Amino acid sequence: MLWPMLALSLASCGLAVLALCAVRVHTEVRRLSRQVAESSRRISRAAEDLERATVPLGSHVDVLRGEGQPAPTVTDRD
User: Fold this and answer.
1) What pLDDT digit, counting tens, does each position of 48-60 carry?
2) What span, in angstroms and rounded, lies between the C-alpha atoms of 66 and 78?
3) What's the CA gap between 19 and 41, in Å, rounded?
4) What is the pTM for the complete model shown?
5) What pLDDT sits at residue 16?
6) Cβ-Cβ contacts under 8 Å for 71 (sequence gap 6 or more)
7) Could you tell me which residues come within 8 angstroms of residue 61 by beta carbon, excluding any fewer than 6 positions away?
8) How far is CA 16 from CA 22, 29, 49, 56, 76, in A?
9) Higher-confidence position of 32 and 60
10) Do residues 62 and 68 lie in contact, with contact meaning Cβ atoms separated by under 8 Å?
11) Separation between Cα atoms, residue 23 and residue 31, nearest integer Å
């Protein structure tokens, strides 16, 4: 009777350790997903800021080319 009780208690302890590890993994995955979401938002904001910053530069390039003249195409360079 001793060996079955010992095996049952060891199995219960093993399940408790596995449950604890599963809870820790779950919390770390949730934290990682929050960080990924925040990073994605920051990258999107930076991309939008970059797009907004290129608009004035595009107008400066047009002015430097001669105020509204179209940019040369590949066939115009030959």
Assistant:
1) 999 888 877 777 7
2) 20
3) 33
4) 0.58
5) 97
6) 65
7) none
8) 10, 20, 50, 62, 75
9) 32
10) yes
11) 12
